[in-house]
Design goal:
- By secondary structure, the protein is mainly alpha-helical.
- It has a domain of 94 residues.
- The longest helix is centred in the N-terminal third of the chain and has 22 residues.
- 5% of the residues are buried.
């Protein structure tokens, strides 16, 4: 058994050495997944976040039905969002406006899924403790161009 393994490994090594000698050096553009080679650095262009203050922006259309809404106003002054300090709640913790038709200029209420205490098992008027990290799902809007085409 050991002799067979030794013979097979010797044969494969020989084939590899012969193959490398006849093929010549590897061109940098033939390595990697892009046509530009491995040394191309596709740096994205710079972009800006909106300068619209909270309360001055309009509701934005969602990309699809269950998508979390984008944040159409500045968020820098509200960061970091922690369980103890979450200024998003001051405007968006409005359980009485759940499922009401949005009126331009009004603050959008968090959905029903964001209420019910920690884990959704509790008082439906209390925001869930597991939903305090708003920026985990809700991102501010920017004018950034996509790095790759999206056909979704």
């Amino acid at each position: 058994m050991k002799i067979k393994i030794l013979l097979v490994s010797t044969l494969l090594t020989t084939i590899g050495i012969v193959g490398c000698q006849t093929g010549g050096p590897v061109d940098e553009t033939s390595v990697g997944i892009g046509a530009d080679g491995v040394f191309n650095d596709p740096s994205p262009s710079t972009f800006d976040y909106p300068t619209t203050k909270a309360g001055e922006s309009d509701r934005m259309a969602k990309s699809y039905h269950t998508a979390p809404p984008m944040v159409p106003h500045t968020v820098a002054e509200y960061l970091p969002i922690t369980m103890e300090t979450n200024e998003c709640m001051e405007c968006h913790d409005k359980p009485k406006y759940i499922d009401k038709e949005y009126v331009k200029g009004n603050k959008l209420s968090m959905p029903e899924s964001h209420y019910g205490g920690f884990g959704g098992k509790g008082d439906k008027d209390e925001a869930s403790g597991s939903r305090y990290t708003c920026s985990q799902c809700h991102a501010p809007v920017s004018d950034a161009q996509p790095l790759v085409e999206n056909t979704f």
